[in-house]
Design goal:
The chain is built from no helices and three strands. It is an all-beta fold. The chain has one domain. It has a three-stranded antiparallel beta sheet with strand order 2-1-3, with no helix packed on it.
Length: about 80
């Protein structure tokens, strides 16, 4: 089973990518297993929009059937250097 994760600055998959990964897990000889996935990313010196709101979206998908057993947690902090 492969799990694909892409985090973008914005709301569309075509927006600037901040983080992207593919993780492959093999459940050898079993029909059930649990896998926790975590990621860290950084996005520096981002221009603020006119309304001064930054939006990040995480797109997560898999190439096979799976069951999500807990909710996702997505936290972000933004820092900007003012010169």
């Amino acid at each position: 089973m492969a799990i694909f994760m892409t985090i973008v600055r914005g709301t569309q998959l075509t927006d600037p990518v901040v983080y992207s990964s593919t993780a492959v897990y093999l459940a050898e000889g079993t029909t059930s297993f649990f896998q926790q996935i975590s990621a860290k990313a950084a996005d520096y010196d981002v221009d603020l929009s006119a309304n001064r709101i930054l939006v990040y979206t995480a797109f997560i998908s898999t190439d096979s059937a799976c069951l999500r057993v807990v909710s996702e947690s997505f936290n972000a902090s933004a820092y900007r250097t003012i010169v």
